């Protein structure tokens, strides 16, 4: 195994630059056993390029902040082992696609979260603390749909993998629509029709081409594409009823 050879090295192309442009810079990095892509980036920053900008936090696949593009595919770098993705001892590492670049490997997540706002992605309840606690059975089909969709941790992997976002930057994207699907299936929420109206207009769910890149790349194993299909059906039914 290459990672067991103390003299083994990796050839790593790292994107360096900012919003105005940049280029790939080549680095030679020691190849070690059980090495992750985040380990590689950290080694470069600590040993060669102290000004390299990138994000990470938990290092164990809980926060999603270390998401980058590795050999052309968006991934959590803390859970991506070099031996599984390196091609002939080579890696290319870049910031997430479909987002502005702050600097180097750090993407600007502001547009990603702005689309959550546009989609009305906040829970809106109709009861107060003085009302009885709503009874929600965990085995209800709607609750199961909500529970599955709510596991999103906002890492941006699906957004970076979405060709519809690439073709039309106004598209809300799979993460925001996945959030809407979770809320749509939460019967405690009272803003379903308003939310459907928000995602039925310009940049809404109709722009999804159902290629399911979001589902294929989601590190959490979620199915945003299936949720978006559900929203399209819900929007159609609401339109027939005249509620949106």
UniProtKB/TrEMBL annotation:
Keyword Metal-binding: yes
E.C. number: 1.3.5.1
Organism the protein comes from: Marivibrio halodurans
Listed cofactors: [2Fe-2S] cluster; [3Fe-4S] cluster; [4Fe-4S] cluster
The UniProt record lists the keyword Iron-sulfur: yes
Xref: SUPFAM superfamilies: 2Fe-2S ferredoxin-like, alpha-helical ferredoxin
Family named by the database record: Belongs to the succinate dehydrogenase/fumarate reductase iron-sulfur protein family.
Keywords, comma-separated and alphabetical: 2Fe-2S, 4Fe-4S, Iron, Iron-sulfur, Metal-binding, Oxidoreductase
Gene Ontology MF: a single term: 4 iron, 4 sulfur cluster binding
Protein name (record): succinate dehydrogenase
Source species taxonomy: Bacteria, Pseudomonadati, Pseudomonadota, Alphaproteobacteria, Rhodospirillales
Pfam families: Fer2_3 (PF13085), Fer4_17 (PF13534)
GO biological process: respiratory electron transport chain; tricarboxylic acid cycle
Domain 4Fe-4S ferredoxin-type: residue ranges: 142-170
InterPro entries: 2Fe-2S_ferredoxin-like_sf (IPR036010), 2Fe2S_fd_BS (IPR006058), 4Fe4S_Fe-S-bd (IPR017896), Beta-grasp_dom_sf (IPR012675), Helical_ferredxn (IPR009051), SDH/FRD_Iron-Sulfur (IPR050573), Succ_DH/fum_Rdtase_Fe-S (IPR004489), Succ_DH/fum_Rdtase_N (IPR025192)
């Amino acid at each position: 195994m290459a990672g067991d050879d103390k003299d083994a090295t990796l050839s790593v192309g790292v994107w360096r630059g900012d919003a105005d442009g940049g280029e790939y810079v080549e680095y030679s990095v020691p190849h070690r056993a059980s090495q992750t892509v985040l380990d590689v980036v950290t080694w470069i920053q600590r040993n060669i390029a102290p000004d390299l900008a990138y994000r990470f936090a938990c290092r164990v696949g809980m926060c999603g902040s270390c998401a980058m593009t590795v050999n052309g595919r968006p991934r959590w770098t803390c859970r991506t082992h070099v031996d599984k993705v390196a091609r002939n001892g080579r890696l290319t590492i870049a910031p997430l696609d479909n987002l502005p670049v702050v600097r180097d490997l750090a993407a600007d997540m502001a547009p990603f979260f702005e689309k959550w706002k546009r989609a009305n992605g906040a829970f809106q309840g109709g009861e107060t603390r003085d009302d009885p606690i709503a009874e929600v059975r965990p085995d209800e089909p709607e609750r199961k749909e909500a529970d599955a969709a709510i596991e999103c941790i906002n890492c941006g992997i699906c957004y970076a993998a979405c060709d519809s976002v690439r073709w039309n930057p106004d598209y809300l994207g799979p993460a925001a629509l996945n959030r809407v699907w979770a809320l749509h299936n939460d019967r405690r929420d009272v803003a379903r029709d308003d939310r459907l109206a928000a995602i039925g207009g310009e940049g809404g769910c109709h722009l999804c081409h159902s290629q399911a890149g979001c589902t294929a790349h989601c590190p959490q194993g979620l199915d945003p594409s299936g949720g978006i299909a559900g929203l399209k059906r819900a929007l159609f039914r609401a339109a027939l009823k005249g509620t949106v």
